[in-house]
């Protein structure tokens, strides 16, 4: 069939076929990487690299205190850059997180990753675990001030503005995405789960929205009663730093204890 084409058209067709073959090969490699990690539960006593997932808007600098604590403990840390401006579809962000996890596992040779999701990033992490292969790749998941059941602040913003970006709409209480995510088991098998929230959080309201059934749920004020930690101060809070150490180590997950 190619013999009937002119040399120029033949080269064009062969070039297109080569590109298609490379794309198929890349897809196969990705699927193989994900399949290899599905052989069984990841070892809980072998902490691997840590992925940090930022919140709504994707501001990675907000995660600097977390990265500093983890690196001081000798952990390799990757801060995930969200797709676009970080206000788009949370499912698309979860798919991007899957690609980042694949790359980190491939280059590090580690059997698993630990993942910390801050604010809306915690919802992204749960979507990744549930729908994008993360259940076979994550050893531990820790979410910080995450609107797992929505926040009235998003509802108020949408009402006042007559609508809000996709991620904001998805974080409305009882949104279709959150109904699907919270149906059944909120902490599906695979990783071990922990959450941290502050009773002084005025962004994720009610603050109990950040808790998950089946997780180790830490409240800042249970450890430091006088703490006034806001939503934006969570990454630098000493209770959060202590929780990183007590949940992401080689031993079993544990509450951090007093860290004032």
TrEMBL record:
It comes from the Bacteria. GO terms for biological process: lipid catabolic process. GO terms for molecular function: hydrolase activity. InterPro entries: AB_hydrolase_fold, Lipase_EstA/Esterase_EstB. This is Pimeloyl-ACP methyl ester carboxylesterase. It comes from Microlunatus antarcticus. The lineage of its organism: Bacteria, Bacillati, Actinomycetota, Actinomycetes, Propionibacteriales.
């Amino acid at each position: 069939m190619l013999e009937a084409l002119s040399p120029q058209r033949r080269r064009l067709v062969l070039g297109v076929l080569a590109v298609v073959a490379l794309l198929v090969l890349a897809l196969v490699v990705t699927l193989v990487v994900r399949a290899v990690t599905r052989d069984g539960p990841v070892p809980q006593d072998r902490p691997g690299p840590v992925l940090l997932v930022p919140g709504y808007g994707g501001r990675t600098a907000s995660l600097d205190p977390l990265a500093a604590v983890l690196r001081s403990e000798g952990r390799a840390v990757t801060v995930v850059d969200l797709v676009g401006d970080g206000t788009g579809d949370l499912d698309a962000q979860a798919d991007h997180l899957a690609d980042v996890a694949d790359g980190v596992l491939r280059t590090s040779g580690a059997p698993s990753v630990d993942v910390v999701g801050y604010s809306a990033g915690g919802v992204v992490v749960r979507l990744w675990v549930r729908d994008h292969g993360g259940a076979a790749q994550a050893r531990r998941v820790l979410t910080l001030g995450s609107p797992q059941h929505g926040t009235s602040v998003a509802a108020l913003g949408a009402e006042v503005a007559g609508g809000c970006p996709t991620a904001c709409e998805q974080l409305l209480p009882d949104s279709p995405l959150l109904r699907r995510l919270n149906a059944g088991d909120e902490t599906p098998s695979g990783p071990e789960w922990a959450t941290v929230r502050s009773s002084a959080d005025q962004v994720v309201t009610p603050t109990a929205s950040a808790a998950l059934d089946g997780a180790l749920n830490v409240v800042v004020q249970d450890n430091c009663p006088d703490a006034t930690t806001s939503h934006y101060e969570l990454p630098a809070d000493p209770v959060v730093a202590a929780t990183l150490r007590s949940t992401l180590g080689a031993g079993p997950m544990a509450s951090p204890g007093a860290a004032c």
